[in-house]
Every structure is written in structure tokens, then in C-alpha cells.
């Protein structure tokens, strides 16, 4: 293992491959900082969990932003859903939008579950995606219909609990992380974590059940190549 010449890692004690691997492990899998520390220790790499946290904030954000810019145009069918989070003893709502293939389009943590909150999510989605969807699928929460009438009046809106499993299932990684971290400490922490986690998860969302073994392994190899290019270093062997 040798230090990568990428100037992004200049001045760091640890090789770029170690930093890249720590960030990948923490944001892609439901692991605590201490778990990542132990997994690196098993490879003979001694690093503190606090260092892993700092790497995640510095490098994870850069990697996520680059992946988001490079991401292909997503599907024109949006699934929207919201889930309750208990943060600091208060009820918060995580609003999320995914496309028909389960790729996360955006997320927003808010204290409300009304039309104003739904409108904020739709406006953020339109700004980031740059185009309206063909179809918007939600549950029967009336806030979605009210927000859509004002922001996307021409878009078809389907409201049915059974049609929105795609969005509901997308909350599962957040729930696993919430349990691992013994609840989130603040809305800002959730928003920051998900803003890094979701682009990385999208890169490795390979839809294994829709591919042959050979196609899956090819797609996985391509995802690792993209990671190495964006992160500036390959994963540690």
C-alpha cells in the first residue's frame, strides 16, 4: 500500500487508500465509528474513531458532491414519503424522494408534516433535478396534493399506500443507522450524514436481483473504478 499522489491527501499521515476505505465503510454500511476503527485494526491499521469521523466530514462531503454532479439523469417517476425521527426528544420528519429504481433523489429533515414542508421538498427536488417528473407517487397524506397543485400542477399524481413501497423501503438504511448511533443528536447531523450517504449508496445501488451474476460483478467493478476516480484512491486491499 502506497500513498496516492493526489494533492487532496497531502499532509496526511495515513495513505490515501486507508482514508478512502474508512469513508467508504462508514457511509455505505450501517457501522459505527468504533466499528470502522476495529475493522481497520484487523487489517493492521491503527487509527482512532475520532480520526474516522474527521475523514468522513472532510473527504466524504467532497466525494458525495462529486458523485452527485456526475450522476446520470434519474427516472421520471418520483416516489415521495416521510418518516418520523425522534431527535433530541422532539419529533422531526425526514422527507425523501426516490426514483422508480430506488435511487435517492433528495431528502430534507423538517419539523413539520404539512403542505409547507411538502412544498419545500418539491422545490428542492425541482432545483436539483432541473426537470419535472412524469408521475409523482405518494401515500394519501393531503399535504402532497396541496404542494403539487402549486409547484407542479401539470404532473400526474398517484396517491395509494401500496404503490409507494419504493420510497418506504428507502428509509430502512436510515433506520439502521439510527439504531447504530443510538438515535441522531440533531436535525443538522441527520441532514449532513444523509447528504453524504445517499450519493455513495446510489453509486453502489446495483440492483442485484435484476442482473445475472456476471452482469452484477461487472457493474460492481465499474462502481469501484468510479469510486477510485472520485475519491482519488482505491480501497485498501
UniProtKB/TrEMBL annotation:
Boundaries of every DDE domain copy: 76-204
InterPro entries reported in the protein's UniProt record: DDE_dom, IS_Transposase, Transpos_IS6
Compositional bias of type Basic residues: which residue ranges?
A: 173-182
Q: Is Protease among the key words of this record?
A: no
Could you tell me which Pfam families the record lists for this protein? DDE_Tnp_IS240
Q: Which UniProt keywords are listed?
A: DNA recombination, DNA-binding, Transposition
Any one GO BP annotation for this protein: DNA recombination
Q: From which domain of life does this come?
A: Bacteria
Annotated region described as Disordered, given as residue ranges: 149-182
Q: List the Gene Ontology MF annotations in alphabetical order.
A: DNA binding
Name it.
Answer: IS6 family transposase
